[in-house]
Amino acid sequence: MRKAMVLFASLFVATAWAAGSEGHGEGHEPSVPEYILHHVSDTNDFELEVPLGKPIHLGAIPPLRIGSCEPVMTDHGLVAPSGWDGLAKGCLDLSITKHTVMMWLAALLLLGSMLVWSNRDKTKLVPRGAGANLIEMLVLFVRDEMAIKNIGKEDGPRYVPYLLTAFFFILFMNLLGLVPWMATATGNLAVTAGLAICTFIVTQAAGIRAAGLGGYLKHLTGGVHWLLWPIMIPVEILGLFTKPFALTMRLFANMLAGHIVLFFLIGLIFILGHPAVAVVSVPFAFAIYLLELFVAFVQAYVFTLLSALFIGMAVATGHHHDEHGHADDHGHGHSELGPSHDHGKAHA
Amino acid sequence: MAAKEPREQSDGSELGTTARQMRAAQPYINAVWKLVGGAVVGVLGGYWLDRKLGSGPWLLVGLSFLGICVGFYGFLREMARLGKRK
Asked: Do A322 and B4 touch (CB under 8 A)?
């Protein structure tokens, strides 16, 4: 326990030191809000500062752009359009960014740790070592407490691989963000949207698999007369996107907010301009840092749990169709199995 | 799509509390979504068509009214069926 406390404290001090030292050596000294925004935003420049040494700029990785990406003159000189502005002008910016590197790193760490800690020796039933035990505990938790409890005994195990991948990938990205000089990829809306799209695809596939394509499409009509379909089909399609949207925003906002609060507390020293502020702000920031460690696990858990819940609701509709062999005239039937099977909707 | 073989279903007793509650609440959430969504789609569709066709506020007014009616129809239909099921 003492070792863990020392490790957390060291990480926190290093993060705080990195916060204070970034931007040195440049002509313009960034303000605290500028610094915080710079820290949490995604850039093409991956900057690594070594303690007590000169900063090592890993440099902007050569950009990869598709489409009409003619540079335009801005206040900062000739700049190729990027992001949403670029997309509006027909330029798809696929440059490798800080958060992309973080995702690769998380994927590599995930692959490496699973290869090392997984019980590959089939002759041994009991995993050996702390790492293997930890992984087994988490895997069993995701299978038993998330997949089976939210999807069901029959279909739950089928979706465990996806849920495990999402859980561990998000967890590794969240934890990487707490390491000094690293960045939280889950604090990027594009990353969380990508993850939510994966859940969306799995959910729809689960719905189609359980209900059949006909049953799935019938639910999109809303069960109204065909003359009203032009209004009801857009309504049902809009309804499909509310859940992945909630997944996207929840993960993004939680991870971003934690980092902003952490750095703002340290930034108070510079805003108020007196070292004595550190007596209050540093312990508070340390507490937030510990909370962030907890949040890293909680957010991975919540994303996976909600994914399982949505998949479960989609699967429940399919079962409902299976029971009757058909849907009634408005795409719904009546079940004798109880509330858990007759209330699902394909557009969950 | 190929016909699926009939399968034995569990009674859902292994499901967690959250999953059971969410599945129970889903039809009600869906009914409310239909009510709101009908109006939203009517208003947005009417606005868009008015801008495309230059037809003044008429399509906006007409489609908004139709959207609200469809929303209410879907909502009441869902509620009536849920009431019957109980």
From this structure: yes
- Interatomic CA distance for residues A273 and A277, integer angstroms: 8
Distance separating alpha carbons of residues A307 and A198, to the nearest angstrom: 10
Per-residue pLDDT tens for A290-337? 999 999 999 999 999 999 999 999 998 766 555 444 444 444 443 433
**Strand pairing class (A65-67; A56-60):** unpaired
- Which residues in chain B have Cβ-Cβ distances shorter than 8 Å to A212? 1, 4
The ipTM is 0.74
Q: How far is A166 from chain B (nearest CA, A)?
A: 19
Q: What are the pLDDT digits (tens) for B24-73?
A: 888 888 889 889 999 999 999 999 999 999 887 899 999 999 999 999 99
Distance in angstroms (rounded) separating the CA atoms of residues B68 and B45: 12
Please list every residue in chain A whose beta carbon sits closer than 8 Å to the beta carbon of residue B71. 235
Q: Average pLDDT for residues A258-275, to the nearest whole number? A: 87
Q: Hey, is A65 helix, strand or coil?
A: strand
In this complex, the residue of A149, A235, A238 whose CB is nearest that of residue B16 is A149
Per-residue pLDDT tens digits for A188-231: 999 999 999 999 999 999 999 998 898 888 888 877 788 888 88
- Could you give the dihedral angle defined by the CA atoms of residues B53, B56, B59 and B65, in that order, rounded to the nearest 10 degrees? 160
Residues in B closer than 8 angstroms to A323, CB to CB, are 9
Report the amino acid identity of residue A16: A
How many other CB atoms are found less than 10 A from the CB of residue B35? 20
Residue A105, SS3?
Answer: helix
Which pTM does this prediction carry?
A: 0.79
The minimal CB distance from B12 to the residues A309, A323, A337 is found for A337
